[in-house]
Amino acid sequence: MTHLSPHRVIYDTDPGVDDAMALYYALAHPDIEVLGVTTSFGNVTVQQAAINALYLLAIAGRGEIVVTQGVAAPLVKRGEAPPDHIHGADGLGNLPQRQATPTQLDARSSAQFIVDMARQHPGEITVVAVGPLGNLAMALALEPELPRLLRQVVVMGGAVLEPGNVSPVAEANIWNDPHAADIVFTAGFDLTMVGLDVTHQVILPVSLFAQIAQHHQHPATDTLHHAVAFYANFYSGLYPHVAEIHGCFGHDVLAFVALTNPELFSTETGRMRVAVDGLAQGQTMLRRKSIAYPQSGWGPEVPDTQVCIQVQAQACKALIERTLMSAWLGA
Hints:
α2 links the parallel β2 (about 30-40) and β3. The longest helix has 20 residues, at about 220-240. The protein is built from 14 helices and 11 strands. It is α/β, with parallel strands linked by helices. α1 packs across α11, α1 (about 15-30) packs parallel to α13 and α4 (about 110-120) crosses α5.
């Protein structure tokens, strides 16, 4: 699928194994231009997220891409310890060693960087956000016109029909900062949500990443293979159908697949709100019927969100494989 111009992207992330997978898909895809990487707490601390973003870019030969450090904690709720058992204490599957690489962060906050770039390139930039949404919420506070300055926002997070993964109803990114998520969903962005409804349908085997690493013979794909193997061990221990192929869910990379190949997804559009407290904290609630609900908060003042409900899983896997096997890495 070709585009008249590349997608100019700010990648808002908390790397994280599937975040690393998504970053390398974005770098490898010919229609994506990564303008910067903004980091958040979530899978790791925000300090570790920034270290990982710098490292992943450097070993891939893309150290010129700006990395900023963003929010360190939720806007309102108490923060939680990072899930070391899922992503490793370092976020990348406990790498046995790391190369020495430059570690120069941009001095701006992630929110300020998003605002600066949106003002500099109005209507051109897509934010692909695959962690808690505090950076976007903070950017909105700095620039209320941000929904009109950005081209679109793609969020990996939430669930509508599928059960949650940190509670019966909540997905981790949204649950980590539900207040920020509700701000973002109600701000008026051209927003697409890529949640568990589709990411739980795409299971990527470790053997694929072994094949990619063997093909490229490169530190970047070796690192990704190591990280995915750790991540897959967690998911294989949790889900028998994932263990059958020894793989993992393609959570964050699907946000970029939805950007480059939206035809692979079916969507529903409606008003989205997030439960900010109680047993349902972090639940993403989609207004799916035109009922005159007696509760406030569902009226026309709430903008529509496009929510991915179904996905062509085999086509997604083939696209991810084709993209990461392409000639995107230098010597």
